[in-house]
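Review this fold:
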Amino acid sequence: MVLKEDLQNDLQNAIRSGDNLKRDTLRMALTAIKLAEVEKRGPLDEAATISVLQKEAKVQLEAIEDAQKAGREDLIKQFDSILKILETYLPEPLTEEEVMQLAKDAILEVGGETPQDMGKVMGVLMPRIKGRMDGKKVSQIVRNLLHDG
């Protein structure tokens, strides 16, 4: 588990360097991973570890949106800093163009033509994307392609 080891090593470095924000963020991430391991009753593989980190990043995004609604600039900066730290451990996100091409390939593969084929297309497409783009955005792209198709 390279990613978990990286997180633990970076936590030690953050503690040594006095980087409290990074220290606290990495502790939060490692705690979430440990909780997932306890629930699974065993160690997580790399993909599951990334999934846990993506959930933590999503929580930060939601917190940023809530802070924006409340007009709390201080919280926005804090949550954004945490999000940036978490993102350094996540795979590079896909662009809309890349997802559109992957979606077109999946549509051709399953013979999708109408919005009713959405489930088949998403079933083929989502494992290829592996959390590198928000599922809502992916489904919107697929829906548009099938609708316009």
